[in-house]
Please model this.
Amino acid sequence: MKTTVIIGGGASGMMAAMTAARESDNHILLLERQARVGRKLLSSGNGRCNLSNLYADRTSYHGADTDFVLPALKRFGVGETLDFFRGLGLITVTEPDGRVYPLSNHANSVVDVLRFGLQRDNIELHTENGAVYSRRNGSRFLVGTTEGGHIHADYVIVACGGAAAPKLGGVMDGYRLLEEMGHSRTKLNPSLVQVKTDPTYPRALKGVKADAVVAVFAGPSILAAKRGEVLFTEYGVSGPAVFDISRAISTGGDGLSVHLDLLADLTEDEVMTFLVRRREIAPHLPANQMLTGALHNRLGQMVCKYGRITSSQRIGQLSNDELRAVAGAAKEFVLEVEGVAGFDSAQVTAGGINTDEFNPDTLESRLIPGLFACGEVLDIDGDCGGFNLQWAWSSGHLAGRLGK
Model:
């Protein structure tokens, strides 16, 4: 009988445990420092649990070496993941953008079937009991627990997750354990997180949503861009599109700006044509209402203000240059970046344990045979939309194979 200790009862850890348990002569001890496994899953997808995305591929991920994800995704990709959950009794639905959710629209459904899956004779679940250390002890490992116990193991899988969302279980434990065993890590930054900007315009738009192309610039250079929903907040901008470009801000240094194209389906000339026509048919309309019907009323007024149009003016009084300024503002609404909201608000960690220290075909350490790592603890993070959980399932499955 072989003994495998899995440190961390999140998505990747639970998947690793169920995969390793397929070998009947493998005794699995799953350590989770919180009272229940899968706590972070309960908050994913706004409580709906966006558990995968049909379009998951290498381009969905970030890190020093994104090719690192390929073996895991090839061996256990989206199709295998959905088959796995179907086997546990979960019914899923797929939205047009590829996001996969449980039919119930409740994350509890995902966590519940995973807990059922852990109920196997060769899986021993230890909650409220984390790992203090893990080290080689001859040909085996010795794992010390927070309860004061000592476990001898043939294999160790570190699946502790990352530093994001500490209130939901985000920890530094995995980095520390792996660093103590000789591994190294990159700088850690919050990702999939709200962006703080000069609040002058966003504060007045708090609660307003818009479809926009969001781009991050460092001077004249574009660092990232994404189209999707943007939510204006008291301190800046949020929403799915902002989350996806937040990594570039978190890692991009100082002097950044966010540029919003609020009428992405139109060229600036087409916006100009619309405004000229508006001037012709409604010359007595207050000038700051000229975008009403094209944008949310409050947002349209703010764009006019950004273009230096006052509420006392009438559209018929505006010159072509003034209309052009408004068209330009709608196509490029610029906010100066002040930072991101931090790990407390982040959904995922950018950075982690260096992937060149692990074999991508097995996720086994190149430094210590029998040691594996999976999930967010490694220097891999995904875009918003189910990609991070897909990496958790894929990497957890690969690590749980224990090199076989």
The first helix runs from residue 11 to 20. The longest strand covers residues 221-232. DSSP finds eleven helices and 21 strands in the chain. The chain has a mean pLDDT of 96.
